[in-house]
Design goal:
heterotrimer; A mainly alpha; B alpha/beta; C mainly alpha; B: alpha/beta; Rossmann fold; 10 strands; 38% helix; globular; C: mainly alpha; binds adenosine-5'-triphosphate; binds magnesium ion
Chain lengths: 342, 238, 288
Amino acid sequence: MERSAKRDVVVTLIVSAILIAVMPMLIGTYTLTVLVIYGMLGLSLGLIWGFGGILCFGQAAFFGLGAYVYAIAAVNIGESTLPMILAVLLPGAFAAVLGAVMFYGRLTDVYLGVITLVVTLILFKFINSTAGPQYVIGDARLGGFNGIPGFQTLNVPGDSGAYIWGDAYFYVCAVALVIVFLLVTWLLRSSFGRIAIGIRENETRMALIGYDVAARKTVLFAIGAAIAGLAGALFANWAEIVTPNLFSLGQSAEIIIWCIVGGLGTRLGPIVGAAGLAYLKFLLGQQSMIDNTLIMGLVLVIFVLFLPRGLVPAVGSLWHASVGRTARRRPANRRMRRARHG
Amino acid sequence: MAETVLETAGLTMRFGGVTASDNVDFKLKARELRCLIGPNGAGKSTFFKCVTGLLTPSEGHVFMRGQEVTGWMPHQVASLGVGIKTQTPNVMDALSVHENIWLAARRFFTPVEAVARTDDVIDRLALGSIARTDLGQLAHGERQRVELGLVVVTDPWLVLLDEPAAGMSAADVDRMTGIILEMTRSAAVVIVEHDMQFIRSIAETVTVFHQGAVLMEDHVDRVMTDETVRRVYLGKKA
Amino acid sequence: MDISFVILVEMLYAIASLVLISAGLAVVFGMMKVINLAHGEFMMMGGYATITAVGLGVNVFIAMLIVAPLVVGLIGLVVERLVIRHLYGRLVDTMLATWGLSLVFIGLATMIFGNTTTGISTPIPGFTVGAYQINGYNFFIIVMAVVLVIALYAVLKGTRAGLIARGTMQRSDMAAALGYSPDRIYMATFFFGSALSGLAGAILAPLVGLVPTSGGAYIAKAFITVIAGGPSLIAGLVSSATSFGLVNQIFTFAVSPVIGEVALLIAAVILLRAMPQGITSRFFKGKL
Ligand SMILES: Nc1ncnc2c1ncn2[C@@H]1O[C@H](COP(=O)(O)OP(=O)(O)OP(=O)(O)O)[C@@H](O)[C@H]1O
Ligand SMILES: [Mg+2]
């Protein structure tokens, strides 16, 4: 166990070092940066959904919240370190409260879906309606549908004049993703992560063993939200503006599509799905023959129907089959997404 | 006199118009082995669910070792040291036998100790050959045995087993009988069963449920020969 | 006096539009335990069907009440055969697939109709009560909602199809046991549910400027109204539409329309937390 954990870390570091070195030769760092950020956002949902069985239709809420918290704090503080920290902590805290409300109510999948979706909509509607000058937090005008532009972007901690931008910003984001990935790996190997997977598989059994299922789901949900919040803050820095669209249903749908296409129950799947589809969208954006939304929708439908386990597990089992080893067990046989309903 | 570890007073559970559990007074002493029998739909599982917190009783009280646990959540009841096997198999299908049992052990022990105990239980239940197999791929009897393993590994002082022998081969039942008898050295055990042969082989006191209420409670020999029980039970079964 | 009349009409209108918005989704969910997240887009297509038909010279009421339900019903039929039918019993997968479909329809509508707002004018003139102007079309919507509820009730209570439907709602294996093919029942249900969505979209179209993304405004409201309604189809629909409609209007009057919307959504979260199985799991038990 210990040795395989070390190997995991080493492999992760080597592969990501190679990718970070090679990718900028293929794709511009400006585009790469946002792919990396989306990868982190995908990972945040992949963690709670794929390993915790928590169906969240509103992961965009925490993404948007992270971005807005960063922007508002940056306007007020004028230095980026504390805003970055707040952008992780506040979405996490918000999710902890929301999660406690939902999980202690023993709500099942569908209801979880409804509530997370509705919460996203509330935030969207509320932020959208804050165009008036009376909506200010400190020095920051919320700006309604126009969003908040012109906040302090990432700087070297302690030196608000030393901006980190361009290629340097890409490396910061990439390293952040690698760190988050390693933390998620560590979490899943820990008792907490293994218990979370047990809960995904059978809540009743885990409760009968004596685990406080609601508390554990709440914590996992908050961790996922904190990661989404970090992604949101990084996105705010990249876009240099935050708008209510970050909270939109379309954004939530996209995160879900990334996870399904990449593969739930894997750490890599949601990252690959996010970066891959976002890049596809970027390429598609340069043509006007076929509508972008239509293609994303088709991708989702086709994957749900024909490749419900997603790309990474499928490629994984192909690989193992061809190499002749027994296919590594994938827990994500989608039972987790079936509600105890009909 | 041994201490009373489980007691219910006037336990009643209604589902709409159905009274599935009707004013049940039940007492169990430490290290006692008790069998519950009764025709299908008699309310045995409902009684279990009320005791374990899976259902909140409409009326009445549940006490464990003198402490009132009425309305507690299942994890709180389990955390007291109560081992529970439900009627429908409740296991983690996508995880291996080893992982399943480890998760149960981990609740009360450190990771290292949990591994040791898991290995020990796997030996005792003769699960070694399938230790790395996913539960989803096992036969029904094997799954039952693993679920028993989940219960045993935590060293509970109260064990509630809902139809543990269902779907097991004769050899499996024999092995399980051994394990249950071993458990009674440290735990009080309540078993719901339909398999009369099994009950004869193991039980002393038997409680008979009928239409949610306790019909009689006596030594197994007297229960087996009782006219009312025969009528209630066989009348439905035959 | 005048103001209270106006407020009453506004309240009824809010409730009625929630009933209309949710009816199609409620029928499909009640019968098939399927949540169609493309429901909003079905309504959007009902709107476009109406506008297109009117553009071709069809009478506006015929376009709304006949053309739109038929067109959308047929689209629903195709969707059921191609996608939904492969996912029965997998609630979450159905939600995901229909969410994908909703994006497909948004994309298609954008390609066909463009990303601009189109609309038709309301075919019923307004009138004044004292100093207040009342939108006559609101009355039409209230009437349509009442008619719809009564018709649903009559069909479910009074016809053979309704009997089968009620049986299916109680126990999905019941109809099969009685010799009716569940496949055909589901097909018919989905057609009927989609037609209702199309109808609602058509009726509401004159009130809103139509864009391909219009459906998004409906789906969340429909979704929560249906889920909060719980197991009884009609009682659930009416009771949750009433609760949410009232909350919405009270906050709209007291604060602002946006806060009215937000209050509605917050009420939904609270309601679901308090009654996870919906209103009719606690009240109006056993009603239709
Ligand atoms: N959740 C529920 N809702 C409504 N009725 C229920 C529910 N659970 C159980 N019942 C009813 O309560 C009664 C007792 O059921 P229970 O499962 O406790 O019986 P049992 O003695 O365990 O039967 P078996 O031997 O078949 O397992 C039955 O009539 C059953 O239909
Ligand atoms: Mg039972």
